[in-house]
Amino acid sequence: MTPIERFTHLGRSPVRAPDQTTRNAQVRGAVVRLAAVQERTLRIRSTYGADRQGARVDHYVFEHDGRGELRAVMLTPASPPPWPGVLVCPGRNATLERVTGLIPPDHPGRDVAAHLTRAGFLTLTLDHGLDLWAAPAALGGRDAGDVLDGTLRLHGGSLLAALAEDALAALDWLRARPDVAATGLFGHSMGAAVALHTALLADEPIPLCAASHLGTYQTMIGKLLAWNQYTALPSILRHADLPELYTALSPAPLQIQYGNADARLDHDDAAQAGERIATSYEPGRAEVLDLPMGHSTGLAEAADFFTRALAKPAAGDDEPFVPAARVSFGVRARLDVLDLVDDALASGSLTLGPCGARLEDLAGHELGRGTAAVSSGSSALEIALRIVGVEGRTVLVPANTFFATAASAVRAGALVDFVDMEPDGLGLDPEGLRAALDAHEDVAAVVPVHLAGVLPDSLPQVLAICAERGVAVVEDAAHALGSSLDGRQAGTFGRLAAFSLYPTKVITSGEGGLLTAADPADLERVRRLRDHGKLSFEENLHEDLGSNWRMSELHAAVGLTHLARLAEVLAERRRLAAWYDENLARVPALTHHEISPDCATNHYKYLALLPDGVDRAALKRRLRAGGVRLAGEVYDVPLHRQPYFAPRFGDRSYPRAEAFTARHICLPIFPGMTTAQQERVVQALRDALS
Ligand SMILES: *Cc1c(COP(=O)(O)O)cnc(C)c1O
Fold first, then answer.
1. Does 404 contact ligand 1 (Cβ within 6 A)?
2. I need a surface site. Which of 124, 272, 373, 529 has the fewest CB within 10 A?
3. What is the separation of C-alpha 64 from the centre of its chain, rounded to a whole number of angstroms?
4. Tens digit of each residue's pLDDT (9 = 90 or more) over 543-571
5. CATH architecture group of domain 567-689
6. Which phi and psi angles does 125 have, rounded to 5°?
7. Pocket of ligand 1, candidates 374, 376, 378: which has the most ligand atoms within 8 Å of its Cβ, to mutate?
């Protein structure tokens, strides 16, 4: 079996085949992982320019950490700005001067940058710098690219990734220019491989014209000695072959050209690959051209493609879509997860192992309290309430919280009752709490919920009331990992506290939860209960009725990696929230929720209150139609109105919870969100509410 057949066999069984969109995202993800590019910005070392036949020619030399310098030539058309821009990645044997037409071409189609600039495009042509980085004597006749590739591979990199990294930086540089309207990528031969990977690694869809680089890797490397090994990422066939890499760019405009007289490609192989791409791509967005040429470029076809692909977009089309939330694991984090998962698989330690222990240590260190990892936030709550001993007794929970807060108490054998929200705040109402404690003699626990990640003003009073009455406090800190009040971390106020690591939460393990306990004996009990009440890992003696509430090592790998980035995640959320704080004044209809300066929230949710009479569902539909999705509310239906509880509590009234659940919205806030996206949210709200 060839590697690709093995891959096909595993990943493409008829039952399990993912749809094309998912598959494309997986392929792009694999490329990001294998390329593992670092962030790079271009720093200009020197530049000089001149006018030449009505157009302008600028030479740039950029600093390059690995190779000393990176040369580029920018050609500016004679027409007035702004111009559509094209980044040109030349083939291995092309020189900058020939591609930009500064000296006559040695090969048909070589002067592609000159041609595109005559057609009205600003072009930036990169010299990949493969022949400049080392002195010929040091190479001793070896190919400079091969030596560089070999060196990079020692560090788990590759030359292709390094070239794509350069091209990404050049693309950013081009896009930041105020005289460049929209940008596309062109590449020929090896440059086409660079351009393709650059497009796959770019954050946004980008039009690509790739010339003379088509086929399947097996055929290309097996048959033709002329093929550069460094036009493919190491290990890529475990994930995708070249046609699938092109397909993964869908729906960005794509043109692939190949020549029917190209001695370096296998024509049948290229034609079949082209067919595969054309049939899997978003209809009408990809064209594969079989041209009467050798290993060359169809200049007119390329210019025509960019003219169509970079035409001024219809108004609104280029505005950033804003999702409600996004789970973001950067490439470093993903590689760390893979290493930890591989450790677990190699050692056979798949649950209650070293990774979970490290997660517990790190969480304990962050929170300043002993911590155990469990299978979910809900199981953390249930275990905590079982330890407190709530069976047959009453547990008081907020009228406005997630269903799981109350459901966990019910599963632990308790009866629940609800307490309204405090005036002008998100916490429990101290008066309501006193009244509920008076009404029930058998209250075993109170569960304050740190809604939206905020440690509410009323928390100290709630804790004091519970202490006075001798009632245990179990914090539902599912929203609040990383939040603190007067420097004290969420999850360290109650006898026990539960955190959720569900994907929508600030830190996730996929599925999972954390439990903290003030008393080490409680923490020991947590460890027994999560593993069927077993006395120890080795002995099959059970003294408690626990359950399987364990966290697997695979989940722990994700959680540990994410938790290790808590400080970054918090800093980013706080930066985004500060931007909203400053800019929400532009939407006068909205009241932004004031948070006490004593609370350092993790900004799990960014809350705002709608004016009376605004139909929230209609507002959300309207925003959605304009490309802005609001995050989910916390919450839109209070517990006494939930169908499960309504038969018993439906006639109750909790006026503050009812008003809050009906009136608030949650603005999108997630790591990786851009200022342009935030700007879009504010504009959309302003338009919709004025
Ligand atoms: C998410 C959440 C839970 C439950 O956590 P899971 O990990 O999904 O079981 C409990 N309480 C609140 C307030 C939550 O938001």
1. yes
2. 272
3. 28
4. 889 999 999 999 999 999 999 999 999 99
5. Alpha-Beta Complex (3.90)
6. -105, 130
7. 378
